[in-house]
Design goal:
CATH architecture of the largest domain: Alpha-Beta Horseshoe
Oligomer: single chain
Number of strands: 15
Shape: globular
Structural class: alpha/beta
Distance between the termini: 28 Å
CATH topology of the largest domain: pyruvate-formate lyase- activating enzyme
Strand order of the largest sheet: 2-1-3-4-5-6-7
CATH superfamily of the largest domain: tm_1862 like domain
Strand content: 5-15%
CATH class of the largest domain: Alpha Beta
């Protein structure tokens, strides 16, 4: 069968690497595979530059529809992020209107709200959970004109009714074929940077995280890692083919299992030998972990702290680590000569301006801090934080319905998506978000922009300079800095710390923008 995979969003996320593996599974099963890709340039998932009017110009669903129809697929498989759901259902409906092709929705959004997805007549099948172990029997059933009643993880229609099959067994990660890294060519080059996933899930249960939502679907067995042998097979093959200069492990956290990490670092240094970046959790990080990572070739660790307020972290985000724990982890990195990034989140329910002031002062005194990465809270439809936010009056009571319809933003969308902007989504109920210091609407956006700008340039400033900016609300000046100048400051920070990730973006992003502008 000819199978066309369809995806909208940035590349460097788990959903894209999952698609690469799915493509290999399909080819291993004898199917012909193609990709229709919308990089969402300037849109809510663009982590470099968001320009709504440019996004509207570049992101025309009709272009993707034409490419799908030109491929004449026997099945169209959409990997759907929550923020891409309105786009995906529009494209799928237009494809179905033009050609009687079976449409499969998979990915995060169908996994969280399959009932909502199956209300769309353009969707024939929704996969709730992992797809690699169900896609081949599903296609076999489609080709044979049979109902896929024996295929796990599936929602489908039969006789006008929506049916659901039992959950499938978790995928054996070691048994999966190597990901098809050529799937996203020419959109992505692996010459400079290679994105790798060595696990699925996360043992922690943060109230806002997609991994916690996925755990509700899959159960406690969802978190697991590949063996070191399997990891090295992929990286060795990738290095031979692409000669990459750095690796980024996109897993929720690489630390935790000390013996596994020690074995991986020893073999990685000997067989791969290029710098890498990874994510770690504060609770599992210590001096020995820092040493292993540094000796293995790690040049940067990213920590998801999210807020300097212990109460917010505990009661709103469902995390038990303290700011004191964070300082200990950061000191371990500094003592090992290991640069690190800190994720800081805006638009948390019940947050105040003082929380961001306290965070800025604390971050200003840190050694080996590379960047404070500014994120904005994304509400997922099944996340526990939604109830907490509704109770605090931070989001409208009908927020879950809006989120199920896909009207949320992304981590880099300061407005939180249409569901949280005044007026709501197109055709939706009016809504407004309340958060920082009780502000709402425009005042809240300006406040977040001011402190977000401070955090972006903070590693370049002395602690004294940070305190001076915070005094008398001089921080408001930073929110007016043009983005090109802000990019120059961040580039200077990247040069100082030899941030290979930033350098890779400098090489790849202009090509992405040019392709989006010129593409028709």
């Amino acid at each position: 069968m000819r199978v066309t995979l369809i995806y909208r969003g940035r590349y460097h996320v788990r959903q894209a690497t999952d698609l690469e593996t799915l493509a290999s599974v399909l080819r291993q099963g004898g199917h012909e595979v193609g990709l229709v890709y919308d990089a969402d340039a300037f849109g809510v998932t663009d982590n470099v530059l968001q320009v709504p009017w440019l996004a509207r110009r570049c992101q025309k669903p009709g272009r993707s529809v034409r490419r799908i129809l030109d491929a004449r697929p026997d099945a169209a498989v959409f990997s759907v992020l929550p923020s891409a759901y309105p786009w995906a259902r529009t494209v799928a409906a237009q494809v179905k209107a033009a050609q009687a092709v079976p449409v499969v929705f998979t990915g995060l959004h169908p996994s969280l709200v399959p009932e909502r997805v199956m209300r769309d007549a353009c969707v024939d099948y929704a996969v709730q959970g992992e797809t690699e172990n169900v896609i081949l029997p599903l296609l076999e059933a489609i080709a044979g004109g049979r109902e896929p009643a024996s295929v796990g993880n599936l929602w489908y229609r039969s006789g006008g009714q929506v049916c659901r099959t039992p959950p499938a067994e978790p995928v054996n990660l070691d048994a999966l074929p190597l990901p098809d890294k050529d799937l996203f060519r020419p959109y992505v080059s692996h010459r400079y940077s290679y994105t790798c996933m060595v696990s699925r899930g996360c043992p922690y249960q943060c109230s806002f995280c997609e991994e916690t939502c996925a755990r509700k679907v899959h159960g406690p067995r969802y978190f697991r890692r590949k063996s070191v042998d399997a990891v090295m097979r992929e990286l060795a093959a990738g290095k031979r083919r692409y000669g990459f200069r750095e690796v980024i492990f996109k897993d929720s956290y690489l630390s935790g299992d000390r013996a596994w990490l020690a074995d991986l670092m020893r073999r990685y240094k000997a067989q791969v030998g290029v710098p890498f970046k990874c994510f770690c959790t504060i609770r599992s990080f210590d001096a020995e972990t820092a040493r292993l990572l540094k000796e293995g070739g790690c040049y940067n660790v990213e920590f998801g702290l999210q807020t300097w307020n212990d109460r917010l972290r505990r009661e709103v985000l469902g995390r038990n680590e303290t700011s004191r724990d964070a300082l200990r982890a950061f000191a371990c990195c500094a003592d090992a000569g290991l640069w690190y990034d800190v994720d800081h989140m805006f638009n948390l329910p019940t947050e105040t301006v003082q929380d961001h002031i306290d965070g800025a002062i604390a971050y200003a005194g840190l050694r080996y801090l590379n960047r404070v990465k500014v994120h904005y809270l994304v509400y997922l439809p099944t996340a526990e934080i939604v109830d907490r936010a509704v109770g605090a009056g931070a989001v409208p009571p009908d927020i879950r319905r809006l989120l199920e319809d896909g009207w949320q933003g992304d981590f880099y969308d300061s407005g939180g998506g249409p569901a949280l902007r005044t007026g709501g989504p197109p055709g939706g109920a009016a809504s407004s978000a309340r958060g920082t210091a009780g502000l709402s609407g425009r005042g809240k956006d300006l406040c977040a922009a001011d402190y977000a700008a401070l955090y972006k340039v903070l590693p370049a400033l002395s602690e004294r300079s940070v305190r001076w900016l915070l005094a008398g609300r001089r921080v408001r000046w930073l929110g007016r800095i043009p983005w090109p100048l802000m990019a120059v400051v961040q580039a200077m920070l990247a040069v100082r710390s030899r941030d290979l990730r930033f350098a890779a973006y400098l090489r790849m992003y202009p090509a992405k923008v040019l392709r989006a502008v010129l593409d028709r």
